[in-house]
Predict the structure.
Amino acid sequence: MSNRPLRQPLFIIVDMGLLYNIGVSIYEAGIKLAAHSNNKARLWCEGRKDILDHIAERMASVKGRVVWLHAASLGEFEQGRPVIERIRELMPEAVIVLTFFSPSGYEVRKNYPGADHIFYLPSDKPSNVRRFLDAVHPDVAIFVKYEFWLNYLGELRRRNVPTYLISAIFRPSQIHFQPWGGIWRRALDSYNAIFVQDDRSCELLRGVGYDRSIVAGDTRFDRVAAIARAARRIELIERFAMGEPLFVAGSTWGKDEELLIELINRHPDIRFLIAPHEMDEARMKHLEASVDGGVVRYTRSANMSDFSGVQLMILDTIGMLSSAYSYARWAYIGGGFGVGIHNTLEAATFGLPIAFGPNYHKFREACDMVELGAAHSVTSAKELEAWFEPLKSDGEPLQKASSSARSYTKEHCGATDTIMGVIFPTAG
């Protein structure tokens, strides 16, 4: 029998914080490499050139209470916007700093008048974080929905800056709830409170020891209610509609448009308006060639007075879709044949029955509206036609779906009031 000692198991202790910082650096290097061929990556890099010096210069003379709100991109901004605007209303003296991670948010909203300063967020390296917080010196930090920049959260906690996450939603598959997600679970403690959209998220957080979550709902309901109140008149769409209800399809992609083309051609007595998600020239030409009735583009029809021979208008500009829904009786929301559907609430707040593609299950409001009968998922042109046919006339099916959509959006308003009451209890 050998007298050699038994070989001991080899355990490697991994510094997850170090791995995270390495990951941030690798991500940043990858973005810089991609910038040579990808416009979004190029904007990401160009926007962050000398960004910390720029922020320090802009913030040097700032006095007063600073509220910092960070949104990853445009969708998260829309969720944070009701809170920003309520802060501006109740605390006009506050200095609001808005940051974005993605160019798709920053480039669209860099001139948003509701914030005093708008910046790209410097990457989450410890040195960047310290310089950013030294320059901005926030009194309150608010993150929207899915923001877990570990170095920012850790430094905010060390500086005792009250920090909140709003409109959050959690699922069991997220890293916080996995055996290897310890560093992400610890990050939860950096938030003084997490405002979640539903009870399930609250239960998940309690299950990993976080007990400061508050079920507030989704601020997007407050946002779309404000959009509906502020819907503006669009004279050109009025002339196109000729007093008849429209079928409006918003944020469509190629697969969505193939279904819609068949629907349009089956219903020559209905006028349609399609707002593509991207102004792709080839796709717009395909629409023009495929629709049997007349087709016009919004930007080329300003001088038209007679739309009697036109069945489809292509809304080839941005910023008008939410108001266009006010002229509609039915809506289709694009994206459901890709990674996920776009904003359904802007249409629902006007009481429109909604159809969309099959990839909607990650969107709580879409699931809710399907269950209520206000929305319907389709996988083919045949299914889209079957959904539309009973809703075409102003009968009970249309009235019931319309009422369900309008009631659903109205009943879920109020998240902004809950959030403000906790974060700024003395405001106003």
Observations:
- The longest strand covers residues 246-252.
- The two ends are 83 Å apart (CA to CA).
- The longest helix spans residues 16-34.
